[in-house]
Amino acid sequence: MASFLDKLCTRADLGQRLALLQRPVVFTNGVFDILHRGHVTYLEQARALGASLVIGLNSDASARTLGKGPQRPLNSEADRACVLAALSSVSLVTLFDEATPVELLKLVRPECYVKGGDYDIEALEETRWVRSWGGQAFALAFVDGYSTSALVARIRA
Fold this sequence. Notes:
Blueprint: E1 8-9, H1 14-18, E2 25-30, H2 37-47, E3 52-58, H3 60-64, H4 77-85, E4 92-96, H5 102-108, E5 112-116, H6 125-132, E6 136-140, H7 148-156
Parallel strand pairs: 1-4, 2-3, 2-5, 3-4, 5-6
């Protein structure tokens, strides 16, 4: 069995698995439908902010609520989780079904929360929660020219 599968974590096992991670923990979330250079650059930068990187991955049901189109995500949640877990920058991948990762974030309680530069970090509820327990929140620079939606449009054309 592939060792990266050890990085996949159910919510039920999250507390036990988090206790084994080195601190500080960085948390990010997203759909990560078709992994591209922008994603891996972002995840490397996120990991550099701490000792461990936990990804909250939108489940298929959650991703469908984000307005990306009726046929998204293209890759199943299991496939997306495995691809992310195979990256050396990633410590743990766990799914969430809600529209936002707030409830998951409250369980993880990371020292650092990050999103891509296309988000207004100050407007996110996640930022308020992380700061409430003394953590930090950052928007990392967006890597221009890389977008899953643009890639999907190119493939369909």
